[in-house]
Write a structure and sequence with these properties.
Helix content is about 30%, strand content about 25%. By secondary structure, the protein is α/β, with parallel strands linked by helices.
């Protein structure tokens, strides 16, 4: 299988504009992320896909591979789909541009899911991490996921799912981490399908895949990603770096 990584990179992030160009140990956040993805040696190729001339120049000057997105997109899947439409590839892994500390172990688990998928039942694979804190479980910014007995996603929601009516039953809650690995066909099918009602209501792109019949394999990880969403996150990242 040919496996590539795509790093969608918008310059105008709503909560922290220009964050991908901020300095992290002498290089920008987006260059750090790109280099970290390359160093995993998990991918045949790594690309940044962006609508920003600034980020395009930044990656080009660093010797990296970058694709300009020519259309307006609502989500990362659409941006990646446009970029891979004419690339010969089997599996596409979405790496978050604002997470320079790449969790190599979890990415390997995503890739292994496809390598072990003899019957080709998996359209996408994604990550989940257990939530135990009540405030985190109830926080609508944390997308929750429930799965069937084979760990295929049943539904994603910002609400608390499942609802714990019978307190004698032991229930676990899982947060969906927005890291995906796609078969190319699943990605292109998503791209050519209009936004679905539940996706629009919840503002969760994974729901569109479910609504059009795609199967999403959820893989549990214990590693919480370190994303840069605020100036405070950047300061923490600098200390960690």
């Amino acid at each position: 299988m040919k496996i590539i990584a795509m790093i969608p990179a918008r310059y105008q992030a709503s909560r922290f504009p220009g964050k991908l160009m901020k300095d992290l140990g002498g290089k920008s956040v987006i260059v750090r992320t790109y280099e970290s993805a390359v160093k995993t040696n998990l991918f045949d190729e790594v690309f940044v896909v962006t609508d920003s001339d600034i980020i395009f120049s930044e990656i080009t000057n660093a010797g990296g591979k970058v694709i300009i997105s020519t259309k307006e997109h609502e989500c990362g899947s659409d941006r990646i789909a446009e970029a891979v439409e004419n690339i010969d590839v089997d599996i596409v892994v979405n790496v978050q541009g604002d997470e320079p500390f790449i969790d190599e172990v979890s990415l390997q688990k995503l890739i292994n899911a496809f390598k072990n998928d003899v019957k080709k039942e998996i359209d996408l694979a994604s990550l989940k991490v257990e939530l135990t804190d009540t405030l985190e479980i109830e926080n609508p910014n944390n997308v929750k996921v429930i799965t069937d007995v084979n760990n295929f996603a049943i539904y994603f929601s910002r609400s608390v799912i499942p609802f714990h009516r019978d307190k004698e039953v032991i229930v676990k809650y899982f947060k969906h981490k927005g890291v995906y690995a796609f078969r190319k066909k699943a990605l292109l099918d998503f791209y050519t399908t209009p936004m679905t009602p539940l996706e629009a209501a919840e503002k969760i792109e994974a729901i569109r895949y479910l609504e059009v019949g795609k199967k999403i394999k959820m893989i549990e990880t214990s590693v919480e990603s370190i994303g840069i969403d605020t100036p405070e996150d950047l300061e923490k990242a600098k200390k960690l770096f």
